[in-house]
Amino acid sequence: MRGGPSASLLCCCLAVVVAGVAEAAGAGTRVPPPLPVLPIPTAAQLAWQRREVIMFFHFGMNTFTDVERGTGAEDPALFAPAALNATQWMDAAAAAGASLAILVAKHHDGFCLWPSAYTAHSVRASPWRAGNGDVVREFTAAARARGVDAGLYLSPWDLHDHRYGQEIAYNEYYLAQLHELLTRYGKVWEIWFDGNKGANATKMTYHFQEWFDTVRQLQGSINIFSDAGPDIRWVGDEKGFAGTTCWSAVNQSSITIGSAGIEKYLNDGDPRGTDWVPPECDVSIRPGWFWHRNETAKPLSQLLNIYYNSVGRNCVLLLNAPPNAAGLIDGADLARLREFGAAVKRIFGTDLANGSRARASSERGAGFEAGKVLDGRDGTYWAPKAEEKGYWIELRRPAGARPFNVVRMQEHVALGQRVERHEVYVDGVAVARGTTVGHKRLHRLPCPVAGTTVKIWFAARRGPPLVSAVGLHFDPYATDVM
Description:
By secondary structure, this protein is α/β, with parallel strands linked by helices. It has two domains: 43-349, Glycosidases (TIM Barrel), CATH 3.20.20; 357-473, Jelly Rolls (Sandwich). The protein is 26% helix and 21% strand. It is built from eleven helices and 18 strands. The protein starts with 6 loop residues before the first helix and ends with a helix.
């Protein structure tokens, strides 16, 4: 072509133009996240799940009468903690690794730990602080100062108040007290309800829906606990054990608060559940919920076993530490909580998967690579391509990597819970298998292994699995907890 550019120059210019168009198009065509598998958690539920360990403080009239369940006829003069120090309680919570602490503001005996305007049966009638004390205020103030979030439990069953059994009058009384607790003490992160009452208790209908709606009106981002939620459900036992299969979803229409016979359903959850209501495992550090002089704390081995069977099974552990009659966490209990918190940090503070390379059956695209399971971030995750015959992810460990005896897996539950069955292989040998994963699944192996490849097969799932983390850890206490 005379008088014009050479053919080679034209080809070069055309290639540059095409590449520029492709780059511009690529900048605006990032692969979007996959569709969620419903139901999915609210932001408040997701933040609650990531706490993993929270604290319960049972303190009240029973502390001074040495019983687990009072009668409602106790003299308020019995309530006289000589050295109550809620800051020390928060030190105990922080030592155990808890970011939220829940106070029993009123137990079944009806005695109120705040000066309620609606009853004389409260700290106002006690000699403590010359009748001017308020345990709820000291508790919430100490929590804020220590950076611990506060929660409250207000027992529906009331053995003291004369209105109990009168449906309208008692529900009005209960709502009035709920209003006091949720307007006087700042932000409350979790409110605890239950339907617990004795077999021979006065017949009483609780207006749970009115209570829940009032809570939402007063504190919009709070999480509400009860057998059936609406935000957090009971796990179905007081041992601190979730089911080996544990779904966050249930059908709330299948659950009546306080009903017997629903424990197994609560423990396992429901893969076909339409409501996201994750479980909370409540258990006391001592045999009883309240302090008793002749009781001692569970050994570290038992607390770690509880941790693996609650946090390690898609649950939040609610650990009770009862203050004594002086108003302090017993010294031996405090030491055990510190020991427990230190042990969890020791086990999980070092991830032996660090330095590994991850590969997977496939990758959805940029932003969803296999390596996301190793980046230590909650919001990132590996996502495979859809419609594969089998999904797996594998870690290839560096030479000389240390042995491990705990395998940790976490789903990106913000987009739903998906894994129904999984298997773990080390150098091609099966070492663990299970069903659900959820927020976190922990497998303790019978003995330490030093394999170079760790592969997880997702044998059954509801849609492609989304995995936010795979970790490997060494538990030096394993001989104690197996």
